[in-house]
Amino acid sequence: MTFTNIERITPVIGFMQAYSHTISTLKKCSRCKYVSYCNKSCQFVQLVSQIIQKQRRYPPCTHDDEDYFPTTVDQLESHLKYARKDNIESLLCELQQLFEEDVLPEPSSLLNMYGAINCNGFSILDNDLNGIAPGIYLRASMVNHSCDPNCQVISDGRKLQLRTVKDVTEGEECTISYVDLMDPTKERQAELEKRYHFTCKCVKCIKEINPDDGLGELELRDLHWTKVLQLCAPYLKLDSSNNLLANYYLLVRLRQEAIKVCVHIQAWDKYVEMGQLNIESLRYHYGPYSAMLGLHLLDMGNKLLEMGRLREARKYLTEAKSVLEITHGPQHSFMMTPYVQKLLDL
Question: Origin, by domain of life (predicted)?
Fold first, then answer.
């Protein structure tokens, strides 16, 4: 079974410190928690301004090219008819204040750029898969969606790798998922319709059925850590009393929440128990080769190693290596860190 790194694409991305306001009035980026902006509009305008500056350095290609890929953001799908008029007018006004008239693209190009960013943006992720910044990757934006994808994207700093996670035959389309595959069909389709303006009709969407239960009402916010565990306790064991499927998406997320609680209160035996219960569930939802599964296995192996349970640790670390070599590749910066290499070579 051969898996290859299809391509790495440099993002069009930028950040700005909003100096025109006092520090006390600025709002930190909700993702990186480092850069500050006046508001969301300010953040969006900065991304657009960086795109404008970058595109001035590279001439666009024509649609007559044999292997056409977009070289400017305004060549991407924009779905402008769904855009809010007041948002567009505000964007144009702020950009006119930032740029000279001869630098600013034509209004039609700016409008397409606005729409393209809204429906083609990627989240740049850190090594723990936390979103830290938005980015536009022109070639990656051409990859279509599937709820049963044969590829995944993985961040490597500011670069993006598109990697196959299944066998792909010659001429077969490469696909990724635009949404969280653990979400039930209705939620996935609602998100796809809202942001990307299409309805997915894949086999998974047609056949998938999720049972109803009382977990939909369960609210975990603003609770003390120990209360979260108490509230989740009836659902955190594999038995028939709760009438839930072991891989039911809310049950899996409850366990993920419980794992975070265990880390906070340093209940490591419970951490391992919850982690073991979620391994097959992550495999069920995301497939046998996913970054989510690989990192989970790595964390499990590392914790078991710290607890002195060497045989179990080796089992999970061996499996983590087989998954991460597919999802990240051996040359990924994360895989080349001494800490990770030491664990995976145990």
Answer: Eukaryota
Q: Is the dihedral of CA 201, 207, 212, 215 positive or negative?
A: negative
Give the burial class of 201: count Cβ atoms within 10 A of its Cβ; 0-12 exposed, 13-18 middle, 19 or more buried.
exposed
Q: Residue 293 is encoded by which pair of tokens? A: 């599964």
Dihedral sign for Cα atoms in the order 326, 328, 333, 335: negative
3-class DSSP assignment, residue 176: strand
CATH architecture label of 204-344: Alpha Horseshoe (1.25)
- For the whole model, what pTM was predicted? 0.76
Fold of 5-177: Beta-clip-like (2.170.270)
User: pLDDT tens, 249-301?
Assistant: 878 888 888 898 889 889 999 899 989 989 999 999 999 999 999 999 999 99
- Rounded CA-CA distance 148/174 in Å is 11
